[in-house]
Design brief:
This is HPr-rel-A system PqqD family peptide chaperone. By secondary structure, the protein is α+β, with helices and mostly antiparallel strands. It contains three helices and six strands, in the order ββββαβααβ. It has a three-stranded antiparallel β-sheet with strand order 5-1-6. The radius of gyration is 12 Å and the shape is globular. The termini are close together.
Length: 88
């Protein structure tokens, strides 16, 4: 399964201390996200990735020594349910 973020123009983001506010223009909903959700959205902005490739990208970008596939799967499921990414 590959995950895809919406086009950049569909999201308006603002950093709010420990959170990132993400306004999803197509739905009109604003989401408050905590790490690693904003980082996942940023990694998917370059194009669709499957979970292993996304985990590798996040691990390399953020120098993660303890990258957890199950935790990433849970975050991806949450973002899909929220409508911020698509799974195909």
């Amino acid at each position: 399964m590959r995950y895809r973020a919406p086009p950049a123009e569909a999201l308006l983001t603002a950093d709010l201390d420990a959170f990132t506010a993400v306004f999803h223009r197509p739905s009109g909903i604003t989401h408050l996200l905590a790490s690693p959700a904003p980082e996942i959205l940023a990694a998917l902005a370059d194009g669709p990735l499957d979970r292993p490739a996304l985990l590798a990208t996040l691990a390399a970008t953020f120098d993660l020594a303890d990258a957890d596939d199950e935790a990433l799967a849970a975050r991806l499921d949450e973002l899909v349910v929220a409508g911020l990414i698509e799974a195909a």
